[in-house]
Design brief:
about 280 residues, alpha+beta, Jelly Rolls, 7-stranded mixed beta sheet, 9 helices
Length: about 280
């Protein structure tokens, strides 16, 4: 079973239907190559300064470079892409809000072995969420072409319904091959792993992940994005980063005030009863 491809014109309902049944879907050519090139250009100095992984899981010849909101203004278009946010809202609809979980350029170098097959939601201390409750919606944007030879992400379509099992192997997976500018959407439950790079080129993908508003973020957005950068950002992006009340009483500051006031002051606050931003609708 291969990963289903849909065009960039696909509706959020069409994409969600495949995501719900297969746990993964590829949206072809969702971003223009000019935008992708700008992100790569902005991130290149940081990627070059990033050390490789310290263990086999993170990849000893793989670099993981984060803090894209602060480092790459062009990436904001991908982080806030309306199609992605609309599908995320549908997948995570049992929570009042969702937020940005992480931003990370993953650069898999030549001669890298494949990553072990896993579920991303295991990051939450291996908590066993109910089988019908989704807590993550994940994307990988292709910053270079993804091929089986250069380490395209490998997935087990339909595996979101399987029990937790650490023994799945790459032989059970298929490669998520896609062109530069395409986007792989997958749930936190689907089994997957970075592919082995048998080419002489680095495979680069931008991993942008969203999770429900009552869970801790993998990447600490409040420290990854310095205050002097945060104050320049639009409110909707700040709310997506977590500057909001995540449910009835989650994440407020001091006297039950909205956290956006920490940056904007009282005149820029939202009403306490606002549960979802426009990006969640």
């Amino acid at each position: 079973m291969s990963v289903i491809h849909l065009p960039a014109s696909a509706t959020a309902d069409e994409l969600h239907d495949v995501l719900a049944s297969d746990g993964a879907v590829i949206i072809d050519d969702l971003a223009g190559t000019d935008l992708i090139d700008r992100v790569v250009t902005e991130m290149t100095p940081y990627i070059e300064a990033t050390p490789p992984g310290s263990d086999d899981f993170s990849g000893r010849n793989t670099k993981r470079t984060g803090a894209l909101i602060a480092r790459s203004p062009s990436s904001h278009e991908l982080i806030e892409h309306p199609t992605i946010l609309a599908v995320t809202a549908k997948l995570l609809d049992r929570a009042q809000t969702f937020q940005l979980h992480l931003t990370q350029v993953i650069s898999i170098g030549p001669d890298s072995p494949g990553q072990s097959i896993h579920r991303d939601q295991w990051a939450f201390d291996f908590f066993e969420f109910p089988s019908d409750y989704h807590v993550q919606c994940n994307t990988i944007w292709a910053l270079t072409d993804f091929t089986e030879e250069n380490g395209a992400t490998r997935l087990m379509p339909g595996s979101q319904d399987l029990p937790n099992d650490h023994s799945h192997t790459v032989d059970e997976t298929v490669p998520a091959e896609m062109g530069k500018g395409s986007c792989l959407l997958y749930t936190g439950k689907v089994y997957h792993g970075g592919g082995a790079n048998r080419s002489d080129q680095t495979r680069m993908g931008l991993n942008i992940t969203y999770d429900v508003g009552w869970l801790r973020q993998e990447e600490n957005q409040y420290l990854s994005v310095p205050h002097d950068v945060a104050v320049t950002l639009p409110d909707e992006l700040l709310r997506l980063m977590g500057y909001r009340i995540g449910a009835y009483a989650l994440g407020y500051i001091d006297d039950v005030r909205d956290p956006i006031e920490a940056l904007r002051g009282p005149s820029g606050s939202m009403s306490f009863g606002t549960a979802r931003s426009s990006s969640d609708e």
